[in-house]
Prior knowledge:
Elements: H1 6-14, E1 21-22, H2 26-29, H3 44-58, E2 62-77, E3 85-86, E4 94-98, E5 101-108, H4 109-120, E6 124-126, E7 133-139, H5 155-167, E8 169-185
Parallel strand pairs: 1-8, 2-6
Antiparallel strand pairs: 2-8, 3-7, 4-5, 5-7
Amino acid sequence: MRDVTVSTGIKWSYGVQQSQISGPAWIQSDHFDIDAKADEPATDAQMKLMLQALLADRFKLTFHRENREVRGYAMTVGKGGTKLHPAVGDGVMQRENSANGTVARNITLQEFADFIAGPLEAPVVNKTGLEGKYDLTLDFTSYLPPEERAMKPDFLNIVMAALQGELGLKLESQKVTVAVMVVDRVEKPSEN
């Protein structure tokens, strides 16, 4: 991993949203290169466990979890119903971003909620009631403001309109209860 924060490592290895991590400011601002090698090819699940062990060993990471009620978003099905397409095949989740959108394959709606929580900088809870995996394409192009307003687009409104228009999903601002990882201890590692 190159030029990553401790928070990014926690987020990926524990499967939490950025807003679910509470700790010292430097875990989101200081960047590190992490070099580690597995003895043999590893799955994503195995890599996540290895990164958890590395964070505990090299960064002395310890934490506890607690539920907190915070301002966030609930993702629900819009009035017109969903426009989602069930995933074809049993592949692993893949997501690729472009300048104006994202394409995802074999993604659960909780994984999608975790993804959009990043740019929204707030927790997103999946309350659609929909299970399974989906193939989806989210293109913001037709939701971007005209040229005269393009200098300061309202990102939240663009995301909300695109979710409704492209996927039939809706974001509702509300207080949500989320499990937060509260960092009890973390240290900057010494050089190897």
